[in-house]
Amino acid sequence: MDPTLKLHKASSVPLSDSTVCKRLVGCLLYLTHTRPDICYVVGKLSQYLQSPTNIHMQAAHHVLRYPKGTTSRGLFFSSSSSTSLTRFNDSDWGACLDTRRSITCICFFLGTSLISWKSKKQSIVSKSSSEAAYRALAQASCEAQ
User: Fold this and answer.
1) Using only C-alpha atoms, what is the Rg of the chain?
2) Both 42 and 100 in a single domain?
3) How far apart, in whole angstroms, are the C-alpha atoms of residue 2 and residue 65?
4) Cα 121 to chain center, whole Å?
5) Dihedral sign from CA coordinates of 122, 128, 133, 137
6) Is residue 77 within a helix (H) or strand (E), and if so which, with residue range?
7) 3-class state of residue 144 by DSSP
8) pLDDT per position in the chain (145 positions), as tens?
9) Distance from chain centroid for Cα 42
10) CA 139, chain centre distance (Å)
């Protein structure tokens, strides 16, 4: 998806028939099981399925073209990789334009292989970027346990 595109509820004209957009995002959700690189954008698109607009549909079509052009990418589990568990987490302060809540992203690697990932809106509006980062760290620690 275009990184400069900021989606929100009233971004464009609502679709007259939203079932096509809902089916397309549903197919993309199914695809995220083997393509974690599209998880964030598919999650972002799924937030607007109640009343999708033309912009949301265009973004969904753009995401659909990405896996077609990158068929050689996907999850890879190497047999010679180490067994050390590594966690990465980050937050995007006030990323949701509608609710002003931050988004937490968490990735777990076993050696060099991605084994778990999560991207979720935080339940409380953070007053600063450091508060959002602290909440992301706390959530990642709970996921690790």
Assistant:
1) 17
2) no
3) 13
4) 10
5) negative
6) none
7) helix
8) 666 667 767 667 777 787 888 898 888 888 888 787 888 888 888 888 888 888 888 888 888 888 888 877 766 667 777 788 888 888 888 777 777 888 888 888 888 878 888 878 888 888 888 888 888 888 888 888 8
9) 6
10) 16
Answer yes or no: are the C-beta atoms of 21 and 52 closer than 8 Å: yes
N-term to C-term CA, the chain: 33
Let me know if residue 41 belongs to a domain.
yes
For residue range 11-46, list pLDDT tens digits in order.
677 777 878 888 988 888 888 887 878 888 888 888
Its pTM surpasses 0.85? no
From CA 111, how far away is CA 62, in angstroms rounded? 32
Is residue 80 a part of any domain in this protein?
no
The label of the residue with tokens 């409380």 reads: 124
The boundaries of the domain holding residue 43 are: 1-75
The tally of domains found in the chain comes to 2
Do residues 58 and 4 both lie within one domain?
A: yes
Q: Where a domain ends, among 26, 57, 75?
A: 75
